[in-house]
Design goal:
single chain, five-stranded mixed sheet, alpha+beta, globular
């Protein structure tokens, strides 16, 4: 399940300097017990450049969180159809990624590697995956997401009728 992500448009300074045109997405995912943890919403997740970060001030949330069931994945691909599907992800989506752990780089640039262990931490503990297949298995549709779209439609309809109605001086 996706808890945080960062799309790369290949225009960021770091990607431009590294001549990195394959990295399309850094995605922070949780699985196993973490996906059903009652306190997961009490943990803040965010992506930096090449990092997945998380923190909480809630001790119960921290106690229920399995740190070996979270990963920072760098998804790389040169397939435009996969790159298009990756753009559709949202937090809470359940995804399936098929591919290979990969190291890659450009001439004259230090290659980017991948972790092959679930127990490593810190720099280099991320998986770089050359994606062959990508799918959103189950999109996150929560009450709040649905209500946001309904509210947006009501707002747009209200604005349309407000400006469509002729002005009358009383």
């Amino acid at each position: 399940m996706i808890v945080s992500y960062r799309h790369h448009d290949n225009n960021s300074r770091m990607h431009r300097l590294a001549n990195d045109h394959l990295n399309m997405l850094d995605v922070c995912v949780v699985w196993g017990d973490n996906t059903i943890a009652a306190e997961l919403d009490k943990i803040d997740f965010w992506n930096g450049i090449f990092t997945c970060n998380f923190e909480t001030r809630n001790q119960a949330a921290w106690d229920s969180f399995e740190v070996n069931q979270i990963s920072n994945n760098h998804l790389i691909s040169d397939d435009d159809s996969i790159r298009d599907r990756v753009r559709d992800i949202r937090i809470g989506d359940q995804i399936r990624v098929r591919g290979y752990l990969a190291s890659y780089g450009s001439p004259g640039v230090i290659p980017r590697g991948t972790s092959t262990s679930r127990t490593d931490k810190g720099d280099g503990a991320c998986e770089t995956i050359y994606v062959e297949r990508f799918e959103i298995v189950r999109a996150a549709t929560s009450f709040w997401r649905i209500s946001m779209y309904v509210s947006l439609c009501v707002l747009l309809a209200g604005l349309f009728f407000y400006f469509k109605r002729p002005f009358r001086v009383h």
